[in-house]
Amino acid sequence: MKIEIKNISKTFGDLIANSEISISINNGIHALLGENGAGKSTLVKIISGQIAPDQGEILIDDKSLLLGSPKQSIESGIGLLNQDPLDFGNLSVLETFLVGIKDQNPFRKLNKTKQSISDLFKKYKIKIDFSERTNNFSIGERQQIELLRLLYNGAKLIVLDEPTSAFSLEQKKMMFNTLRSLSNEGIIIIFVSHKLDEIMELCDSGTILKSGKVVHSITKPFNSKEIIGKMFENTDSLVKNDKDFSSSEYFNISVSNNDLLEKEKKYLEIKFPYGSVIGIAGLQGSSNDLYIKNFFTKDLSETKITLDSNNKISKKSFYYMPADRVERGLFRDLNVLEHFGLYKASESKILNWGKIKDIASKKISEFNIKAKFSNEVSELSGGNQQRLMLSLMPEVKSILLLEQPTRGLDLNSAQNIWETILSRKSKDIAIIFSSTDIDEIWDYSDIILSVSGRFIVNIDYKKNLTKEKIINYVSGIV
Amino acid sequence: MNNNFEKLQISLLRLFFTLSIIFFILTLFGTSPLKVFDSIIYGSLGSYSKLIRTLIVWGPISMASIALIYTFSAGMWNIGIEGQIIMGAVGATLIARSFLGDTFISPYVQIIFAIGFGGVWGLICGLLKVKGNVHEIFSGLGLDFVASGIVIYLIIGPWKREGIASTSGTDIFDKASWIPTIGQNEFPLLLIILILILYILSFVVLKYTSFGLRLKATGVNELATQRFYFSSSTFILLSFFIAGSIAGLAGFSQASGAYHKLVPSISGGFGFLSILIVLICSRNIYFTFIVSFFFSALIVGGSQLQIRLGLDHSLIGIIQATFVLSWLIFEKLKLEEPLLKKVFRSNK
Amino acid sequence: MLLFENTIVTVISLSTPLIIAVIGETISEKSGVINLSAEGTIMISALCGFAFGYLTDFALIGFITGALSGAFIAAFISYCDIKLRMDQIAVGFVLTILCIDLSNYLGQEYVRINGPIVAKFSLPLISKIPFFGKVLFNHSLITYFSILLIPTSWFFLNKTSLGLAIRASGENPLAARSRGINVKKMRLLGTIIGGALLGLAGATFSLYTKYGWSESHTANYGWIILAIVIFGGWNPYRAAAGAYGFGLLQVLAIKAQSVTLALSQILPLLPFPIMIFILIFIQYINRRERKNLPKFILSILGGNQPEALGKKLPEDVN
After folding, report:
1. Which residues does residue A3 pair with via DSSP β-bridges, in sequence order?
2. pLDDT tens across A362-382, in order?
3. What is the pLDDT of residues C259-281, one digit of tens each?
C-alpha cells in the first residue's frame, strides 16, 4: 500500500492550517513532526476524513480518496489512533471491538467473531480479557486494543496522533514492538509526535511541518540538532533578561528523588534568590507543564517550593496560569470585566465596578487584549485569552507559575509580555515558567530546569549551560 | 445605547411571537383568546381587593423566584424548592400555634423560623451534592416528598383541627399571627416590604459583592475557582442555604398571609412555577421582578375563568408553560434579529 | 402461603406500567437523553389512552394512542436537544408542567367515567402449575407484555448491532461517529422508543392499573421512574427489580392502611420518598466508599452512567 498526499491546503477563517502539503509514503514508519500549531492535527483530521480540505487530493494505491468522510477513509483502509483512546469506557472490550465492525451481523456469528479477535490478539502477543470493561485497562492497553481493532477492520495505513503521552515505559515498549511487526507486514504507519527520542527510536523517515508547510524531509539516521533547528523558529529576542541584582532573601526548590532521571544524586534542595526566573524546558508531551501545576496543587509529586525563612507560603501567594486557558484557567460564561472583578474579589468584599473598570482598562491596554468588557471569554481568540490570563497576575509579591506563557502569541506580543513579566523581577519571589521553545527558555531564564518525559534531568544556572546541552537533556540524551 | 435598545426590540418581538403561539393554542381549544385575557386582567387587577389578592400571590412567587436565582447562579437545579417552601410554612405554623401565637411579635418570629426551616431543608440538598455527589434533582425530589408527608402528618395528627382530623388544614391562626396589613382592604404592607428588601438586597449582593461574582463563577470550573482562591463547594452549599431560606420566607407568606393556616398544598406548585419564571429571565433581577408579577396576575385572574367563562383553571398552567417553552425555543431559533434587520432595511 | 402468592400476583400486576416506563426510560438514557418530562408524558398518555379507549370502546386503540403521544413528546425533546441544542433538563421540566396541566384541562370531561377494562387472560394449562403457574400466568396481556419486555429490551441493547450502536452513541458520540455511526439518528431512535414506552405505560395506568381518569391521575409516578432507572444502573433487569420493589412497597402500604387507619393518608405517599432515599443512599455509598467495597457488592450497587447522558452532542458530529 502507498499513500500520496498532494497539495493539501486548509484554512480556518484567517488561520492557514495547511498550505500545499505534499508527502509521499511507500512503506515503513513515517514521522510527522512540528511545533504546536504547525498543522499536524489538521492534516491528520483530513487524512482520517473528519474534515475536508479546501484543495488537494490524497491517493491511496493510486486511487483518489473521497475526502471529508470518516466512513470512506475507513473503507479505504485508513485507521486513526487518537491521543485519547476513542473507545467506550463503559463497554466491554469485546463490545468496543464490535461497534462499527466491518462484519455484517456480528451478533449472529458471535463465537466466530470472538475467535477471530482472539487469534488476532494472540498473533501480537497481547493478553486481554474481552469481557472486562474497557476503562478497567490503562491507557496504554486501551490504545493497543484500538490498534488491533483498526487492523481487524482492514486498516492498511495507521495514523497515530501523539499516542504515547500517557504511556509507561513498559507500555511504550509493547506498542513499539507491535508497530514494528505491523510495519514489517507492509502496513504504513504515520507517527505524529513531539518526542524526539521516540521518533529516533521507532521511525524510518519523517516530514517536518512548520506554519502549515512542509519544511524538511528526514530519513534514518537522524540528526537531532538538525531536526530541532528546523522545527523551531530561530528568534533573536530584543528583550533580554539581563537585569542583574542581588537579593537577600532566598527560596528553595526541593526536588523529590522520584522525579530525578539519575537517581544517584541525593535529594536535591537548591537555594535561589528572590526574583529568579526559572525556565522549565521540555519537549511537547513532557511533564514540564505538570511540574508547574504541581507547585500549586501539590498533588502530583513531592517536588516543592519552600521559603528559606521557613514561613509557610499561603495559596494566595501563588499565581498559577494553566496552559488550557478556557478549560481550567478562566470561566467560559463570565465576561472580561467580570474576570477582573474576580481578581478584585479576593481582596475586598464589596466590588467597586468603577475602580474595576479602571483596572481593567489599564490592563487591557497594557497587555494589548483585543476585547470589550462585555465579551464572554468563549468569544475571544486564543491569543487574547492568553493575554487576559496574563493580565490577571496579582500586584502583590508572588510566585508566578506560568505554563507556556506565550503559547499561541505572535512574536511581538510575546516580547511585550516578557518585558512586563521581567519588570516584576524586583517585586516577586519567583517567576517560574514552562516552555517547549528552547530559545524562549534561553533568552529569559536565570536558571534552567530540563525535563525529559516525566523526569528532571538537570537543574543549573544558565551561565553553566549551553543551548546544545539543554537540547540534549530534553531529548533524553544524557 | 444602541445595544440595549436593540435588545429591547428583540425582546418585544419575541414577546409578540410567544403571545401569538398562546393565542393560537387558545383558539385551538375553542376559547376566545381575547375573552380569556380580558377575564384574567379583570380578575387580577380589576379592583383594589383583586389587586391585593394578586399581591398576596406575588409574594411567594417573587420570593421563590429570587431564591432560585441564587442556586441557578451556582449552576444547580433546585427542584427541592417546593419542599423548602413547605418547611418554611411549617416553621411559621409552629410559631403561630405556640404561646407566641397571639402576640404582636408572632409574624416576626414566624419569619425567623420560616427562614431557618427552609434554609436547613435547602442545606440538606447542598450537603448531599457536595459530600456525596448526589444529583440535586433527586435529593430535591425526595425532600419534596418528605416535606409533603410531614405536612399531611401534622395536619391530621398533632396539629389537627379541634374535633375532626381533616385534610382541609389546621385551625385558622390567631389574628395576631396573620401577616400585618394596612387599612380596610388589608393591604399586605409587610409582604411588599419584604419583597422589596429581598430584591434590592439581592441586586446589591449579586452585582456588587465579591460573594455575588464568585457565586456566578461557581459551578463548572473547580480548578479555576481554586486559582481565584475560593472553593466551588462552599459556594454551592451557601447557594442552597440562601435559596432555602428565601423559599422558607415564601412559605411564611403562604401560611401567614394567604391561607392563615397550614394546608396540604401550602406551596401551591409555586416552586415549580418559579423555576419556569427564572428559566426565561436568565438571572436578570429586573425581569424576575416583573415576570413574577405577571405570572401571579395570571393565577389570580385565572381563578375567575371558571366563573366567567366556564374554563378550568388548569388553562392558566397551560398558558404559563407554553409561554416559557415558546420563549425558550424562540431564544434558540434567533429569528428576531434577522427579521428586524430586514424590516428596518426596507424602511430605509 | 396464599397471602404470599396473592401478594406477588398483586405486585406484578400493579407494577406493570412501572416496568414498561422504566425500561423505556432506560433505553432513552442509554442513548444519551434524559426524558425529564416523564411525569408529564405519562399523565397525558394516560389521558389519551383512556379517552381513545373509551371513545372507540377498544382498549388496544387506547394503548396505541398512548404510545404515540409518548413518542411525539419524545420526538419534540429530541428536536430541541439535537437541532436546537437546548438543555435537555430545562425542556423536559417545562414539558412536564405543560403536559400535567394539559392533561388536567383536556381530561375534564373524562373524569369518573367508566371505560374499557383490560381483562385477565389466563394462559391455559400452564396457569394451573402450583405456585409459579398461579403467580405468573394469570395476568392480563399487557402484564405479559411487560414481563416479556424485560429480556427483550436487554437482548436488544446488548445483543444486536442496533442496540450496540445506540449505546455507543450514548457513551462517546465522537468515537461512534468516527466509526461511521449516525449518532443523531441513534439518539433520536433511542429517545422515541423510550418515549413510546413511557406513553404505553401511561395508557396502562388508566386502562388497567388505576381504571379511568381523574385529576393528576398518575401523580408522582413519572418522577419515581426517573429515580428507579438510576437505581437500576441503566440495566433492564435491575431496573425491573427496582420497579417490582417499588410495587411491593405500594402493596405493603395499602395493606398497612387497613391496619392503622390513623396514618392511612400518608401511607400511599411513603413509597416515593423511601425509594428516593434508597437511591440517595446507594449513590452516596457508591461515590464515597467505592474503593472500600467488596467487588460483589459493587456489582450489585454499581451502575454505569452513560458518559454522554444529558450532554449536548459535540459540535463536530455531523
Report:
1. A25, A60
2. 988 888 888 888 888 877 877
3. 766 566 677 777 777 777 777 77
- The residue among A99, A143, A150 with the most chain C CBs within 10 A of its CB, best to mutate, is A99
Domains in chain C, ordered, with CATH?
Answer: 2-301 (1.10.3470)
Question: Strand runs (DSSP E) across A37-183, as ranges?
Answer: 55-60, 63-64, 78-81, 157-161
How many CA atoms lie within 13 Å of B113's alpha carbon, on the beta-carbon side? 22
DSSP string, B134-148: --HHHHHHHHHHHHH
B189 in any annotated domain: yes
What's the rounded Cα separation, in Å, for the pair B221 and C197? 37
The string of pLDDT tens digits covering residues B98-157 is 888 888 888 999 999 999 999 999 999 999 888 877 788 888 988 998 899 899 889 888
Q: Which residue has the cell 405505560?
A: C201
Query: Mutate which of B3, B205, B227, B232 to disrupt the A interface (most A C-beta within 10 Å)?
Result: B227
Q: Does A80 touch chain C (CB under 8 A)?
A: yes
d(CA B100, CA B306): 40
Give how far A379 is from chain B: nearest CA, Å: 17
Distance in angstroms between the alpha carbons of the first and the last residue of chain C? 59
Phi, psi of A190 (to 5 degrees): -105, 120
Residue type, C305: Q
Q: Are the Cβ atoms of A330 and B226 closer than 8 angstroms? A: no
Are residues A80 and C316, on separate chains, in Cβ contact within 8 Å?
no
Determine the residue among A318, A331, A393 to mutate to test chain B binding: the one whose Cβ has the most chain B Cβ atoms within 10 Å.
Answer: A331
From B135, B142, B321, residue closest to C94, measured CB to CB: B321
Contact indicator for C282, C229 with CB cutoff of 8 Å: no
**What is the CB neighbour count within 10 angstroms for residue C3?**
8
Which grid coordinates are listed for A74? 475507513
Do residue A89 and residue C307 have CB atoms under 8 angstroms apart? yes
Q: Is residue B212 one of the residues assigned to a domain?
A: yes
* C-alpha pair distances (Å), C134 with each of A10, C4, C10: 71, 12, 12
User: Is B198 among the domain residues?
Assistant: yes
Mean pLDDT over residues B176-196, rounded? 86
Cell (9 digits) for C13: 400486576
Sorted by sequence, the CB contacts under 8 Å of residue A436 that are 6+ apart come out as A35, A36, A194, A281, A282, A283, A284, A288, A404
pLDDT tens digits along C39-93: 999 999 999 999 998 888 888 999 999 999 999 999 999 999 999 999 999 999 9
Contact B276 C97 (CB under 8 A): yes
DSSP secondary structure letters along A313-363 = PPGGGEEEE-SSIIIIIS-TTSBHHHHHHHHHHTT-SB--HHHHHHHHHHH
Give the residue, B290 or A221, on which the prediction is more confident: B290
Per-residue pLDDT tens for A413-430? 788 888 888 888 888 888
- Indicate if the pLDDT at residue B283 is higher than 90: no
* Residue B162 placed within a domain: yes
> Other CB atoms closer than 10 Å to residue A246's CB: what's the count?
7
Residue C201: the pLDDT is 96
Nearest to B328 among C86, C100, C284 (CB): C86
Domain that holds residue B223: 63-285
Give chain B's length.
348
Cα A261 from Cα A280, distance rounded (Å) = 15
User: Is-contact C188 C196, C-beta < 8 A?
Assistant: no
Instruction: Please state the domain count of chain B.
Output: 1
Confirm whether the ipTM is greater than 0.90.
Answer: yes
- pLDDT reading at C300 higher than 70: no
Query: How confident is the model over B33-45, as pLDDT tens digits?
Result: 888 888 888 888 8
Judging contacts by C-beta atoms under 8 Å, the chain B residues touching residue A328 are: 221, 223-224
Identify whether the C-beta of residue C287 lies closer than 8 Å to the C-beta of residue B133.
Answer: yes
> What distance in Å separates the CA atoms of residue B95 and residue C213, rounded to the nearest whole number?
40
